[in-house]
Amino acid sequence: MKTTQNNSNVNREKKTFFTLLRPQLRILGLIFLFIGATIQLGAKLMDKKIPEYTSLLFVVGFGLFLIHRWVAKK
Questions:
Q1: Which of 18, 59, 62, 64 places its Cα 20 to 30 Å from the Cα of 37?
Q2: Is residue 22 part of a domain?
Q3: Dihedral of alpha carbons 16, 31, 29, 63, sign
Q4: Under a CB-based contact definition with an 8 Å cutoff, are residues 23 and 55 in contact?
Q5: CA-CA distance, 22 to 12, in Å (whole number)?
Q6: Quick check: is 15 in a domain?
Q7: Domain count for the chain
């Protein structure tokens, strides 16, 4: 009698840090982008100097969003 091997583990995706947090990465990226845009818009409307850390918020937000897209394509 031939026994069949259970191959359920073969097709399983390897769980990494980014694959576990994939839905949260998109939300966090959009939140960082929104906060950076709000601070920049507020500074422009009040005729004040735009804080330097807002560009960092944009980079972090966009980076998180790109990681989310990269994990989705894997």
A1: 18
A2: no
A3: negative
A4: no
A5: 17
A6: no
A7: 1
